[in-house]
Amino acid sequence: MKCFYTFLLFIVTSFACFSQNYVGLYVNNFKDIIGVPSAETELLNYAQDNGFNYLILYNLSYIQTHNFLIDNVADSLPLANFIEDAKTNYGILQVAAVGEKNASFDKIKTYNSFYPSNPNKRFDVFNLEFEFWNNNLTGPSDYYCTTYLQPNGYTCDQAGAFQFYNSQLALMKAYGDQNGIITETYIGYISTSQGDLIAQNTSRVLIHYYRSSDVYNNGDSIFQYHPDRLENLSMNNNVTVMPIFSSRTNHMYNWLLAPHSLSQPYNTFLNGTNGFNAQPVNFKRNISLDGYVWYRYGELLNISQQLLSFNEQSIENLMIYYNNLDKNMHFINFNTKDKIVIYNSLGQKMMSSNSKEVLHVATLEKGVYIVTVSSKNKQKLVKRVVVY
User: Fold this and answer.
1) Cα dist. 306→171, 297, 310, 341 in Å?
2) Residue 322 and residue 183 share a domain
3) What is the pTM of this model?
4) Whole domain around residue 277: which residue ranges?
């Protein structure tokens, strides 16, 4: 039964993400995954089934000091084999290493040098994660202060943190431009002057949109979450960006369990009320969108497992599938006393029925739909179905 749901989820996400360049996934606890075949396969299956084609890997420094030497060609074979498997068998187009400073990527540079003629084993992206705007990290005695700022002569505040961060970005960009590496950074909140320097010193900027829903209470798109950040980046520069959505419990965890599709926040970002596509040309002229990213794998996997478990334990033996030839949705082992309701990806009710094993849905536009079936004993099945 689980394979059936996984197959359906693959169809849904493949359809939803077809038009995007990249759909990224932050992989936390990669240290517990690499070298463990079952964990690697679970990650790669999850990525493929949910339309992800870009993996952003944490814990590489930990792996270097605790698991195996990334800068040793023999020791690092588990990493090389994983990346090659991801790219050749699971549709992964890019793999990123995450670091907090330019030197974080020294071991990765050595690792990449082992495979000059095999890009399927190499990292494609260096991702700098340094939250210079975070007062909990930059003040006296805080982590950034004692680890990076004081030792390098920078002040322990946001200004000093940004100066250090920007110096690292510039070093990364210089190396990336010479060696075919995409340099990327994640940001939260920036000023105009900071945005100008960031846009000059990186290839791609990931901007967090950490909210608990894809819309505001007034119906506005999630795009309206601090839109000045995009303006600050693109005022004087061409910039490539990807929004980040978060599945953490204080962000979209419960929203995704509702359920909602992984592609909906980006669709709302683009096309929702007062979304990106509704902005004036002058605002968008220097901005290129390169897809979107989800943070992070651990919570997303848990959500997926909960949804699968809920579905399998709901209405026994009931199956739903869409037939494009006759434009019908078929309900196998359906009790005619059960009620069917079909919602679009925005949660709007489109159709309902309580007496048909075959439902003609030719009036529905192409897209992803949420189908619910409620039984007489109050059990409920929720499925995502693609109409194409």
Assistant:
1) 43, 14, 6, 21
2) no
3) 0.79
4) 2-310
